[in-house]
Amino acid sequence: MIKILKYGEVEKDEIFARFNPTASVSDTVSNILSEVAQKGDEALKAFAEKFDGVKLDDLEVKKEEIEKAYENADKKFVAILEASAKNIREFHSKQVRQGFTIEKQDGVIVGQKITPIEKVGLYVPGGTASYPSTVLMDAIPAKIAGCKEIVMVTPTKTGEVNPDILTAAKVAGVDRIFKIGGAQAIGALAYGTQSVPKVDKIVGPGNAFVAEAKKQVFGLVSIDMIAGPSEILIVADNTNAPSHIASDLLSQAEHDKMASAVLVTDDMPFAKAVAMEIERQIPLLSRREIARASIDDNGKIIVADNLDKAIDIANEIAPEHLELCVDEPFAYLDKIRHAGSIFMGKYCPEALGDYYAGPNHTLPTSGTARFSSPLSVDDFVKKSQFTYYTKEALEKVAKDVEYFANKEGLEAHGKSAVVRIEK
Question: Buried (b) or exposed (e) across 266-302, using 16+ Cβ within 10 A?
């Protein structure tokens, strides 16, 4: 059963403790990446057989397979995908940055130009569940940014990719798809193989092996973030229906056994009512074993003295998903300093953000919302600066540049400026 903790009556370590897996996968991932770097497609096929139990003749999904999946897809599902994609495009289009130029009277011109990243790799999980929503969330911002090629990888245990994922890829405009997953897929995107193109950036969530692989290839390629287990924190008062709050907590608990579901409230009877409702709902879930383990191991209800203290606790935890289940959520919005995505009011379950509303669902976890942001168009562009000086403009400042350079003991720096103005 979920733990109920009264803030101020238990150790703070118990309030703010996070799940921290003790088993390291670093060496295993390092070996997998080394194999992929050396053997390419041969290693990818061997790992597919070893880890997924499937023999792959071809690693890439053919265009005809994508078209067939789209044509045979449930029409209602396609319509929902299209509506979701429209909302995602609308939201992310507002994130597009423009370069700028500053022109000064003496002929100096400085500025910044925005350039799309050319090739990006999308990792789409396919283990205990398939996530066509992740395809939309990762591919659409990349398309809006102007990336030339979007390469998707996703695992298969049958030799065929889930048709819902293929349909979502068609809707989102993914260019190429490969039937590979795990750390080996990250390696393929980072190094390139005979079949899989090397990309410039890898984005998308995955398990501990995927996260560790992204960490190890960072520097050779860029990555979006090191994603940990999924999290939800709900700030709720006793005017909510306990069944609603329990349902929202379980929406994250069913992700995996390491997921974290936390409620912070100012009312002990309400806390107990939510705990009982969780117990009632878990047996009704198809993924009840996963939800059970998540709630028992990582779930908690924290009872604070008031909602302001509840907000303080939420900021300290810095959750991936934060629900403000109160009557006037906008009164608290400015008080939220650390959260990946914020869901406002009693009629805005986190699932809206997962699938439909438009804001991205690839979010910072494990407290990294203190300094990180959701996936956005910014993740798929890079910025270059440019500077232009006329001879006359340089003459005005060259001695100052030389003086500054000499302060740092870098004589040649200074000379490179003054040599151009000496007669």
Answer: bbeebbebbbebbeebbeeeebeebbbbbbeebbbbb
Is 321 labeled as catalytic in the residue annotation?
yes
In angstroms, the CA 258 to CA 22 distance is 12
Answer yes or no: 103 catalytic: no
* CA dihedral sign, ordered 384, 143, 183, 225: positive
CA neighbor of 357 nearest in space, from 136, 193, 126, 139: 136
Active-site annotation holder among 212, 254, 320, 323? 320
Query: Which residue in the list 92, 244, 321, 361 is annotated as catalytic?
Result: 321
Angle at 363 between CA 14 and CA 1, to 5 degrees: 35
Model pLDDT for residues 22-57, shown as the tens digit of each residue: 568 999 999 999 999 999 999 999 999 999 999 999
Strand 119-123 with 176-178, pairing: unpaired
What is d(CA 158, CA 383) in angstroms, rounded to the nearest whole number? 42
